[in-house]
Design goal:
The structure holds two protein chains of two kinds. Chain A is α+β, with helices and mostly antiparallel strands. Helix content of chain A is 57%, strand content 20%. Chain A is built from five helices and five strands. A five-stranded antiparallel sheet of chain A has the order 1-5-4-3-2. Chain B contains six helices and five strands, in the order ααβαββββααα. Chain B is an alpha+beta fold. The longest helix of chain B is centred in the last third of the chain and has 31 residues. The chains are: A alpha+beta, B alpha+beta.
């Protein structure tokens, strides 16, 4: 009975987490092998209301052009302000002339591989964008899924009598190598 | 064929059990924002050592000489920079255990060494991010990085083989498709809303 319940949990949480787990795995391979992320840059000029403070200019740009994301890197003089709006898949670098109201926007798209990489690093609830904050719930779910899959997998293997010996050797090798290395590295 | 896939799925899982736990804990560490070395409230262990500064060498060369003298455990090459306020040369040595910061006290021919040791949770977070892209000559770190490399590809195999086994053998179990569809829908929503 317990075996059946844990087998179902192992299956269902694994399938539920499949796309997110693949995201983390593929982006890990990308980072480990330093596979370059192609960048597509485009530029445009947008007319905004003159005399705005940088934050107000950013908010008007967001409302007018549908940009959203984290607003950061706000610098500048009273005449020209620069700021950046960052999303998972793109970044808008904006230079705003408060005298004329002209905003020059440089948009950088990073493609699917770049998005997977950014999702891998996205965490916490300190973002201005609500969806980016909500991703922390996905990260929490994936973390718990990994722990659940590990624990239920060990139980199911142990109940498979014909795999017990070879499994015990493999698990021992895993624990000796990993715990040994971590102990050495922590010293 | 499914018998072999199941066998390999079990074996790969057992060979990567501890790494799965490390990956899972690393996710929890950043989700709950465990304190890093600068916010843990622990003071660094500090000591001052004598050091002779050679003349006419660059900051990078001095940092390398400091690395040769101190040989901080399990660290990569030093990250040398000048303190913007005091203009003192600072050599940072990062490792899974935190940071060893060495400040060059040139007028007195000394080095101030501050060792910031992180918590076990931040150590595990650093461990999960140690890949073969790491620049280090430390044997332990290299070995761990190759183990992580093995685990990355194993994880991909575990995901694909697990999905195959679930979808081919448990198709009649109604929740199989519901779970996969729900996971895909939630992920797609996040992907397109954050994109």
């Amino acid at each position: 009975m317990i075996y059946k319940i844990l087998r179902n949990i192992h299956l269902l949480v694994g399938l539920f987490g499949l796309p997110a787990l693949l995201t983390y795995a593929i982006s890990s391979a990308q980072m480990a092998h330093r596979i370059s992320i192609p960048q597509n840059v485009s530029e445009e000029d947008v007319a905004l209301q003159p005399g705005l403070a940088p934050r107000s200019a950013a908010l008007q740009l967001m409302a007018q052009r549908g940009y959203s994301g984290d607003l950061n890197d706000i610098f500048g003089t009273p005449a020209v302000a620069t700021f950046t709006i960052t999303r998972v898949g793109s970044r808008y670098q904006v230079s705003y002339d408060s005298a004329t109201g002209q905003a020059h926007v440089k948009k950088t798209d990073i493609g699917v591989l770049g998005e997977l990489n950014r999702l891998h690093h996205l965490h916490g609830r300190h973002h201005q964008n609500r969806v980016m904050n909500a991703w922390s719930a996905m990260l929490l779910a994936v973390s718990l899924i990994l722990l659940t899959i590990g624990a239920t997998g060990i139980y199911m293997w142990f109940k498979l009598h014909r795999e017990r010996w070879i499994g015990a050797i493999l698990l021992s090798a895993n624990l000796i190598v990993s715990v040994g290395l971590l102990t050495v590295l922590r010293s | 064929m499914n018998n072999w896939i199941r066998k390999l799925h079990i074996y790969a899982g057992l060979l990567n059990f501890s790494i799965l736990i490390v990956f899972g804990l690393a996710g929890l560490v950043v989700t709950f924002d465990a304190a890093d070395i600068f916010h843990s409230g622990n003071e660094p262990r500090t000591e001052v050592l004598p050091f002779t500064y050679p003349e006419s060498v660059s900051d990078k060369e001095i940092a390398n000489l400091i690395a040769q003298k101190l040989q901080p455990a399990h660290t990569g090459p030093p990250n040398a920079h000048r303190d913007p306020a005091t203009h003192q040369l600072i050599s940072d040595f990062y490792s899974l255990n935190g940071l060893v910061r060495v400040t060059a006290l040139e007028p007195t021919n000394q080095l101030r060494i501050e060792a910031y040791r992180n918590s076990i949770w931040r150590f595990l977070d650093n461990a999960h991010a140690t890949t073969i892209a790491e620049r280090t000559s430390d044997g332990g770190v290299r070995a761990w990085a190759w183990y992580i490399e093995f685990s990355i590809w194993s994880l991909i195999f575990l995901i694909v083989s697990g999905a195959w086994l679930g979808l081919t053998e448990r198709q009649r179990f109604r929740w199989t498709n519901i779970s996969l569809a729900a996971g895909c829908a939630v992920f797609a929503a996040f992907y397109f809303l954050t994109k």
